[in-house]
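If you are new to this repository, start here. Below is one unmodified record pulled from the training split, so you can see the exact layout before writing a loader.
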Amino acid sequence: MQASRRGAGAIAAGGGALALLAVVAITGPALPTRDPLAVDLPGRLRPPSAAHLLGQDALGRDVLARVIAGARISLGVGAAVVALTLTVGVGLGAVAGYAGGRVDEVLSRAVDVLLAFPGLLLAIFLAAVLGPGVGHAVVALALLGWTGYARLARSQVAGLRHRDFVQAAEALGASPGRVVFRHLLPLAAPALVVQATFGLSGAVLAEASLSFLGLGAPPPTPSWGAMLSEGRAFLLVAPHLTLFPGLALTLTVLALQLLGDGLRDWLDVRDS
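And here is the target side for that same chain:
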């Protein structure tokens, strides 16, 4: 009961912060902010003021407008990566867990091989080969991110595979697909939802890392990682260039982690 109450509080805090960020990101173009791409060279590197609440960057662009626009990139890439990896990973993991035998062995070994490589380093390599771009960043991150969902789905489905209700459904003539998607995956959903929440946090950080290295959204598209990279050269004279995008990234990851922890406690999901 205490864990459930603690989980509910974390869900409210993390979910509320994430919802606010999502609303700001989605409605950004309609908000009364300046054009994030508008250059104002006379105002370059100016600190926060009434006219520019978060200051201006090296080209005089409004930092607030760019932080808001960067939220759309970060959350959009993160959501796309989670959607792709969750679909592929859960599908393959569920098939392996239900079929067992050679199918399970082949998929498990493939997952083990991919997990042997440092994920972010391999994503950087793939993004460098594909070239800068939001779509390429999504592909690079999704090519590796499905393994965690596959392993979790396989574990969950295999653990439920021989339950009485599964055997009853099979005896009544239910197809393997129906057994997996109608009877097994709904029971595995809580653990997968928690994993997806943490996966979104990791995808947001990974996208910022790629953009920081110039492998994400190409200039002049606003991105938190790219803004941090651009602001390094002016860290002493204009610390606001790194402070605010860094703060936005930190709060977003913190909200997602808090939401994931809350969901884990509330849904009583134990590490497997």
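Two things worth knowing about this chain: The chain has nine helices and no strands. The CA atoms of residues 131 and 191 lie 35 Å apart.
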